[in-house]
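To whoever is on call:

I kicked off a structure prediction for a single chain this morning and the downstream step that reads the tokens threw a length-mismatch warning. I double-checked the sequence; it's 361 residues and nothing unusual in it as far as I can see. Pasting both halves so you can look.
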Amino acid sequence: MPPRPRTCVILTDPGGFCGGGVIDAVQPALYPSSQAIREFTPYEPCPHKAHLAMVEEIQLKPRSNFRKFFLRGLAILLPSVLTIWILIAAYGFVQSNIAQPVNSGLRQLILYVTPWPRPPERLTGGHGPLTEAEARGLIASLNMDPVEAKAWKDSGYSTHWVRGLLLARWWQYNSWLLDLIGLVIAVVLIYTVGVVVGSFIGRRLYLRGEVLMGRIPVIRYVYPSVKQITDFLVGGGEQKMAFTRVVAVEYPRKGMWSIGLVTGDALRTVSDRAGGACVTVFMPSSPTPFTGYVVIAAESDTMDLPMTIEEAIRFVVSGGVIAPPSQKVNGPASVSNALPTPRPYDTVPAVSRSRASGFVQ
């Protein structure tokens, strides 16, 4: 739909001052009844001398909407593009750091456990060492490039090296399927680790491993922070149960409300001193909700919010931009309702009009 034409209006009065503005109507009304003023220029001396205000309409070309439509398209496409980019980055990370090491170990297992792939007959036992002529013939028959030929020579014309070369070539030819197998094996291994750690013996071993990590000089300063972040982002059922409900607390002072996540009951000493039930509340910071503060507040001083834990996290991470639909207040009033009703043009003092800088949207 093409943009609506805009109209320039010049107003003059007996005092010799005039002003120009841009409105959205093709046939604008006089200024006393107009609510559509968008831009206005300062008043300047005007040669026209008329007893009544005059309106002179000058049709202008429609203003370009490139910026508006560009930002609208960016707002529509950016979430989808970022989501796809994050998924691709996550897949690449798993593929390069988990699946490829698994595939490499699987290839070595095939070489050591099975006789496949079989090397050329000349490299099997009982034929004695290779001569230079025989080596050059095998290099030509196996289509080795100079780098591969040098590596094979450095290995002492090893049969195991040739089998590894043949397996690597076959693997590369079927990489689309074998890489997927490695990814599936990686997922199964991660699942197995989770099952083992969930058992009694596995949990004890895991706790002992954490104690050992906490004693290593350099790792003990890095590992707790990394573990805190990973537990917050991909924590299982136990981590999710740590936050029971979402509340609002007057923090850090009265009259200023902050979003908090109740983690449980307060310390007994604090509850006894307060003389009533208290709760422990984690106050996440924005935009990194895995950091924040822990406060103990009286339960009567907290306000339960009808929000889920995920909605509260999104609210904090977005800086309050993403709020649950049930918690959104009515939008701002329209421009026409927000603008005050202007006084009749001929009742505005000439001094005030000469100093006015105009209405701005």
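Update from on-call: the warning came from a stale cache, not from the record. Cleared it. Sanity check on the structure: The longest strand covers residues 257-265.
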